[in-house]
Design goal:
347 residues, 6-stranded antiparallel beta barrel
């Protein structure tokens, strides 16, 4: 019987799959079911990787929105003691260090723009401060010069008031010999300013010299210390007369020699010396301070008394001087009047 069954079972033709054999229908179905599962898992069919993700249901979205609104309302209603504070604390402890680290890493990059802006601003500020510093240094360097000129100008107004004569203010613009004289200066006032030869020249300290020659815009002044210069003088309270002559030295060593007319008169040290004055006030006015006596000695050969005079004027630092002119002189510049006030000039 078994032999008949084995014989009666038809053989599988060559090239025919096993699942197609009529005698195995259950195995074939099982293989087909397994193949469909693999297709659903790995294929592009429903549920596979290529399929669209399932959309959340509308009820789930509504539930999430309601939950969010409830938590927010609860947090606002609680005020300072919110039930969410512990959650916030935990999040702060967890995320705080990460945020700090991230900020430290990002800060150099985000601060680049601000660095350039602040750097440019600092450069402008430094440039402004340097300019202000330079201006202040310039003012400081010239402040002494300006103060000195102002003091000299104020001194000239006092001299004009004391003498009772008008002065043409001028500045020394050159120092040097003129003609055969060695101790001269050039001033920036000439005939257009009312300056003429043989006029007395003073500054705020005393007698400077006399005008030797004058052009339209400049004039040459023979200084008191020139060896060729001779000036009549009076000494101290006695008003003893004598003649002053220069030594040709300008500076601290510049001195004058005074020879008294009365050889019996002996001047005292520190006596003041003023000008004797010329006829008609030219070339020297009377009463202009000259200097003080520093030394007195006798000349046995000439049986005369001589004195050494230290001039009040510093001839090595002459700047602003005044030329004595008659009242009413017309000038191309302002004139210091006899009352110390400025009078407008102009031809």
């Amino acid at each position: 019987m078994a032999l008949l069954d084995r014989v009666s079972t038809p053989r599988r033709p060559a090239g025919t799959p096993r699942g197609d054999q009529p005698g195995r229908p259950r195995r074939t179905r099982s293989l087909m079911a397994r193949h469909e599962r693999r297709e659903r898992r790995w294929g592009a069919g429903p549920g596979g990787p290529g399929a669209e993700a399932p959309r959340p249901s509308r009820s789930l979205l509504v539930a999430l929105l309601l939950a969010t609104a409830s938590v927010t309302t609860l947090d606002l209603a609680a005020g300072d003691s919110s039930p969410l504070d512990p959650v916030r604390g935990v999040l702060a402890d967890t995320l705080g260090p990460a945020q700090s680290a991230t900020t430290a890493v990002v800060r150099p990059f985000t601060a680049v723009g601000g660095w350039f802006e602040s750097n440019g601003s600092l450069r402008e500020e430094v440039a402004t401060l340097e300019a202000e510093n330079s201006a202040l240094r310039s003012e400081l360097n010239t402040s002494a010069y300006d103060r000195n000129r102002l003091a000299e100008y104020d001194g000239l107004t006092s001299v004009a008031s004391d003498l009772g004569y008008s002065l043409v203010p001028s500045r020394v613009v050159g120092v040097g010999p003129a003609q055969s004289f060695s101790s001269t200066v050039t001033i920036d006032a000439g005939t257009d300013a009312g300056v003429q030869p043989d006029m007395t020249v003073v500054n705020n300290d005393g007698l400077v010299g006399r005008v030797l020659s004058a052009g339209r815009s400049t004039a040459t002044v023979l200084l008191l210390v020139d060896p060729e210069s001779t000036v009549g003088a009076r000494v101290g309270d006695s008003m003893e007369m004598g003649f002053l002559s220069g030594r040709g030295v300008i500076g601290d060593e510049g001195r004058l020699d005074l020879e008294l007319v009365d050889d019996s008169s002996v001047p005292a040290r520190a006596d003041s010396v003023v000008t004797w004055g010329s006829e008609g006030g030219a070339p020297y006015l009377a009463g202009i301070p000259v200097g003080r006596v520093t030394k007195v000695y006798s000349s046995l050969r000439e049986t005369a008394q001589r004195a050494v005079i230290d001039p009040y004027v510093d001839f090595g630092a002459l700047d602003l001087v005044g030329v004595v002119v008659p009242t009413g002189t017309r000038s191309d510049r302002g004139i210091i009047g006899a009352d110390g006030e400025i009078e407008g000039g102009g031809r």
